Amino acid sequence: MNNVVENSQTGFFDCTADREFERQFNTIFPYLRLFLRKVSYQKLDLPTNPTLIFTENSTIKELSDKLLVEYGREVIFQRYTINTWLTITQSIHWTLKNQNNEASKLSCLNRDF
Q1: Half-sphere exposure at residue 95, Cβ-oriented, CA atoms within 13 angstroms
Q2: Is residue 80 in some structural domain?
Q3: Domain count, the chain
Q4: Taking 50 as the threshold, does the pLDDT of residue 64 lie above it?
Q5: What is the Cα–Cα distance from 75 to 87, expressed in whole angstroms?
Q6: CA–CA separation, 13 vs 95, rounded Å?
Q7: Whole-number Å distance between alpha carbons of 23 and 80
Q8: What is the C-alpha separation between 63 and 95, in angstroms, rounded?
Q9: Whole-angstrom Cα distance, residue 73 to residue 57?
Q10: Which of 16, 52, 69, 73 could join 3 in a cystine, given CB atoms 3.0 to 4.6 angstroms apart?
């Protein structure tokens, strides 16, 4: 595989296309971030210009399932909450927009103290 290096401590792969997808996602949703982890040794590399289609109304679960099935990637989603990043586990059925908006509200609360 081209441009792929495995970090044996985390199991995460440093693939240029994966990192670019993470960067773009995190730019669109500034209070969310995602990390991709390759779980399959099949040839399921993200294309250089991914055409993965999702909207702000997609849920965390929908996007996670799509990345796993189509690209063999597990996803860890995190939401910014009052000075820290928390892994999203309980609210996976919320939309990306709702997740981002809730995190935005909580970060504003922190600024008020």
Answers
A1: 8
A2: yes
A3: 1
A4: yes
A5: 11
A6: 27
A7: 16
A8: 10
A9: 21
A10: 16
Task: Determine the Cα–Cα distance for residues 83 and 22; give it in Å rounded to an integer.
Answer: 21
Q: pLDDT: is 43 or 86 the higher one?
A: 86
Name residue, tokens 């059925």: 93
In a domain, 43, yes or no: yes
- Compute the mean pLDDT over every residue in the chain, rounded to the nearest whole number: 77
Per-residue pLDDT, averaged over 78-98, amounts to 90
Report d(CA 99, CA 59) in Å as an integer. 9
pTM: 0.72
Domain residue limits at 37: 16-111
Pair of tokens at residue 25: 């996602």
Alpha-carbon distance of 40 to 53, in angstroms, equals 21
Does 113 score more than 80 pLDDT?
no
Query: Which two three-digit tokens encode residue 93?
Result: 């059925």
Task: Classify residue 38 by burial, with Cβ atoms within 10 Å: 0-12, 13-18, 19+.
Answer: buried
Residue 55 has pLDDT above 50, yes or no: yes
- In the structure, what pLDDT confidence band is assigned to residue 41 with cuts at 50, 70 and 90? low
